Structure formats: C-alpha cells, structure tokens
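#onboarding

Welcome to the new folks! Below is a worked example of what a typical request in this channel looks like: someone posts a single protein sequence, and someone else replies with the predicted structure as tokens. Don't worry about understanding the tokens yet, we'll cover that in week two.

Example request:
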Amino acid sequence: LPPGSCRAFWGWLNAVFNKVDHERIRAVGPDRAASEWLLRCGALVRYQGSPKWQQDYNGLPTGPLGKYKIEAINATESCIMYRGFDYLDGLEHVTDIKLEKCMYIQDECLQRLSETSNLQKSLQQLKIISCGNVTDKGIIALHKLTNLEYLYLSDLPGIREKERTFRVLQQALPNLELELDLE
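Example response:
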C-alpha cells in the first residue's frame, strides 16, 4: 500500500461507522440505534438494571421497542466521532460516560454532548482521559451539563489554561466534584 493509504482507509471506515441513520433510529428507537452505533465503533454500553457491559454487536438484546435503556457508555479506544453524536439525542437515561483514548474526540464533540438536552438532564458522571484533541474550549463547553456531579480529567495535553478553565466550570456548576490528573 502507498504511504498514508492505510490511514486514509481507516478515516473513511470511521466516517462510515459514524454516519447517522435517522431511519434506523425511527425504526428501532434511540437506545437500540445508539447501541448499534457505539458497539460498531468499539464502545461498550450498559443498560438500566444490568450490571454487565454489552460489548458484542451480534449479542445485542432483543425485545419490545424501548425495553433496553442505555445507562452508561464506555468509549475507551473507540472510534466515535462528532459525526455520530446525533445518535445521543434520544437517550434519556445515560448517567455515566467515559471517553478514554478516543482519538476522534475533540472540542466540538464535548460541545455537542453538552448541548444535548436529554444529557443535560441525565448525565451525572463524565470521565475524559487521554483524548489529545480536547482543549480548554471543550472543557468549558461542559458547563451546560447542569446535573453533572462528577468530572474526572486526566492526561489532556490540550488544556493550557487550567486555572481559568476550572474556575469557569466550577462557577457554572458549583456542586460539581472535579478530579484532575493533568500534569
């Protein structure tokens, strides 16, 4: 393969995985469609009332429309990107999201996440770890997640103005427990 062609192929494939299928969302409901998207991209989901993480796309539970509600998302080393974030719009029960080593997560993703009205109401815990494209702008955008109780930030080299960024966030979310590992 010519130099760079492998990277171009993976970029194209990630774009395909993250393409939103609005017909599918209408047909199977937001939680099932989001589960399919997340698992295709290498993330894990956990449903309300279940202690185990769903990681097998072919093993997704079946049942009546709307039976399985996503409660937690672990996107460690997944290829989720901004393009697919429309899948999050209909999720009403997500309380916990972990973004770790997600090379396509950037400020626009965090801004989109914080502007998702259902997540503003439900999201309580967020962990962002080793996502190299996240900067102060993305972290400040999280101020719209009004029910966020816990935010863990680690290994984010794009955060340059730590003191100011965290002061803004804490002023907007006074009840937020902020845990940092950003040396």
